[in-house]
Amino acid sequence: MTIYGVALLALAFILGQWVGVLLGDWLGIQANVGGVGFAMIFLMLGKEWLVQKNQMSPEMTGGIAFWSKMYIPVVIAMAASLNVKSAVSSGSLALIAGIIPVLAGFLIFPWIMQKFHPRHHG
C-alpha cells in the first residue's frame, strides 16, 4: 500500500507542474509558475478525498509522509532556484505571476477546509 501513497504524491506533482507551466504560458513567460504550490494543493485534495472515502490506509499515509519528508524539500529548492532566474529576467511580470497563486491559495483554502472537513489527529 505504500506504493499508492507514492503514486498519489507523484500524480499531485505531475498535475502541479502541468498547471504551473500552463500558468506561465498564460502569463507569457517561459517558466513554471507555482507548480510546487499547486502540487501541494492537489496532494491535500487527493488525500482528503481518500480520507472521506475511507480509502486512506496507514501504509498509504506512510508512503506519502516518507516521500514528502525527502522529496518535496528537494523539489522546492530546485524550483526556487529556477524561479529566481526567471524573476530576475522577467521584471514586474514575475511579481504579478507570484501573487496570482498566493491569492488563489487564500481563496481556495477556506473552500477546501469547508468542503472536506479534514480530521484532526491528536
Please tally the helical runs, counting DSSP H or I stretches of 4 or more residues. 4
SS class: mainly alpha
Averaged pLDDT: 78
- What is the count of β-strands? 0
In total, the number of domains comes to 1
Given the C-alpha coordinates, what overall shape results?
Answer: globular
Q: How is the biggest beta sheet arranged?
A: none
The share of residues in extended strands comes to: under 5%
Could you tell me the radius of gyration in angstroms?
16 Å
Give the proportion of residues in helices.
over 70%
Strand/helix succession:
HHHH
Regions with pLDDT < 50 over 5+ consecutive residues?
A: none
N-C termini distance: 24 Å
Organism: Algoriphagus formosus
Protein name: Malonate transporter subunit MadL
InterPro entries: Maln_transptMadL
Transmembrane segments: 66-84, 90-112
Gist of the model:
The protein has 122 residues and is mainly alpha-helical. The chain is built from 4 helices and no strands. The chain starts with a helix and ends in a 6-residue tail after the last helix.
